[in-house]
Amino acid sequence: MNATLHLLVTLVLCTVVVRPLARARWVWRSPRTGILLWQMLMLTWVLCAVGVAVAIGLSPYGRDIPTALSSWLGGAPRPAGFTALHVVVLVTGFAMAAGLVAALAWSWIRVVRIRRRHRDILALVAREDEELPGVLILDHPLTVAYCLPGLRAQVVVSSGALAALSPAEVAAVLAHEQTHARERHDLVLLPFAALRRLLPRIRLVGVMAEAVALLVEMRADECACRDQSPGLLATALRRVSQSAVVPPPGAIGITDGAVAARLARIDRASSPLPLLARLLLLLGGVVLVSTPLSFLVV
What is the SS3 assignment for 39? Predict the structure, then answer.
C-alpha cells in the first residue's frame, strides 16, 4: 500500500471513529485514558490530512515522502507528470500545516492576554481568606467557582458560593478546581479549541472538542471524589449549576461540560477500566499516531 492510500485509509478511519468514541460511555470510567486517546486521535487526524495532500502532490516522484520532498525543495529535475495541479495540492498541504500551527500560537497568545487582564482585575476586586489559603474570594451574590489556569494558577470562588455551600461542599469544589490547575487542563483543551476556531464549519472538530471538555471535567470530578465524598461533590455541582453563570474567558468553571452526564457518572460510581484494557487502548493510540509519522518522517 503506497503512502497516499495508507494515509487516506487512516484519515477515513479516524473520521469514522470520532462519533462512536464521543458517544461511548466506557471512556467515562477512565477519563484520563480517554483524554489521551482523543489527543492521539486528533494528532493522527491532522497529520493524515496534511500528509494526504503532501503525498498526492509528490506522487509523480514515485519515492517516499521525505526523499521526494527533499528532491523537490533541492531543485532536482521534475519527473514526468508533475504538473501545476500537483504543486497546488502540495502547497495546500503546507498551508494546512502552517495554518494549524498559527491557530495554535494565536490561541495561546490570546488566552494568555485574557488571563493576564483577568488577574489584574482580580488583584483589584478579589480578596483572600485565612480559612481558604490560596483561594481568591470574589464578592458576588451568584454561585460561581472557577480556575484561572497558568503558571500562577488561581482558584476563584464567589461569596455567594461560600454562602450557598457547606464547608465540606466548598472543599469538594476547590478539589475539583485545583485538579484543573495541577494537571494543566487548559493545555489539554487548547489544541482542540484552536482547531475548532480554524475549522468552525467541520462538525467533527466540534464533537472532538466537546468530548474532551467533558472528560476534562470528569477527570477533575474523579480527583475531587478521592478527597471528598462523591455525594458532597454532586450536591455542590447541582447547586452551582443552578446559577447558570458562564465562567470568564480563559477560565475553567466547575459547570463546564455536560452537568447531567457528570452527575450520572458520580451517582453511578463506576469502577475504572482494568489496567490491561487501558494499556491496550493507549498502545492502539500509539500505533495509530505512528502510522502517518512513518510516512512523513521516515
Answer: helix
End-to-end CA distance of the chain: 16
**Residue 138 bridge partners (DSSP):** 126, 158
Single-letter amino acid code for the residue at 289: V
- H helix intervals, the chain: 3-23, 31-58, 65-73, 84-125, 159-164, 167-182, 185-198, 203-227, 230-241, 259-268, 275-296
Q: How far apart are CA 64 and CA 165, in angstroms?
A: 62
pLDDT tens by residue, 183-221: 999 999 999 999 998 888 889 999 999 999 999 999 999
Contacts of 214 (CB under 8 A, 6+ apart): 257, 258, 261, 262
State the pairing for strand pair 154-158/132-138: parallel
Residue 20: strand, helix, or coil: helix
Nearest to 51 by CA among 99, 88, 96, 111: 96
CA–CA distance, 226 with 175 (Å, rounded to integer): 9
State how far the Cα of 155 lies from the Cα of 171, in Å rounded to an integer. Answer: 12
Q: Alpha carbon of 210 to those of 18, 141, 193, 249: distances in Å? A: 11, 29, 9, 16
CB 248 within 8 A of CB 140: no
This prediction has a pTM of: 0.90
